Amino acid sequence: MAEQLTGLADDRALLGRTSTAERVSDILRSRIAEGYFPPGTRLSEDAIGGALGVSRNTLREAFRLLTHERLLVHELNRGVFVRVLAVEDVEDIYRVRTLVECAVVRGLGEPPYALDGLADAVTEGQLATQENDWKTLGTANIHFHRELVALAGSERTDELMRSVFAELRLAFHVVDDPRRLHEPYLARNREILRALQAGDRRGAERLLRTYLADSLERVVEVYRRRVGEDGAC
């Protein structure tokens, strides 16, 4: 837990003068999405509350919000834990991703598009690959798709997908070979970026739809082996 808490004290500055449960939940959601709290991790009220400098009541409300988002679970007499996903959860995450991400690309309108965020995510992935840092590559892939969704210019869509991408990170934690999962998709991210740079949103949507179908197949394959249908490790 000490390693996982590293940096939370720095995040404390994000709370500002109007510390709220919503802002605490934003920080914890981001930490989950970045892979700092793996599935099954017990979240200590004392440790996290102390690191962020918030009251127990505020932290409990933040936990409640993230439980509603299906990122955490409360177990009676045991505490609050980062959720372990079942196969059905993973399938539903990809169903939502396909609906939303493909719709965003399809509805982009006429080029040129604001693609700096996508290009930065590809560069982030390339640097991670050079350093054999597969966890960071997974994060870069999530950043790519988050920036893709941001092209819609919709705060509501961004908010919806923040939780979806955080859940996706929980799925990635179960994968036994993160390099095999993430590395092939860096090249596919570049292909999608190039199609959008060329103004070919139809081609980009085709690439994206195939990408998501292949990724789902791989992740579900791992889940059926590692987690099982009942979601228990």
Q: Which helices and strands occur, and which strands form pairs?
A:
Layout: H1 2-5, H2 8-11, H3 21-33, E1 42-43, H4 45-52, H5 56-68, E2 72-75, E3 79-82, H6 87-106, H7 116-130, H8 134-150, H9 155-174, H10 178-197, H11 201-226
Antiparallel strand pairs: 1-3, 2-3
Main attributes of the structure:
233 residues, mainly alpha, globular, disordered C terminus
In short:
The chain is mainly alpha-helical and 233 residues long. It has helices at residues 2-5, 8-11, 21-33, 45-52, 56-68, 87-106, 116-130, 134-150, 155-174, 178-197, 201-226, and strands at residues 42-43, 72-75, 79-82. The chain has eleven helices and three strands.
Q: Care to describe what's here?
A:
- The protein is mainly alpha-helical and 233 residues long.
- The protein is 69% helix and 4% strand.
- The chain has eleven helices and three strands.
- A three-stranded antiparallel β-sheet has the order 1-3-2.
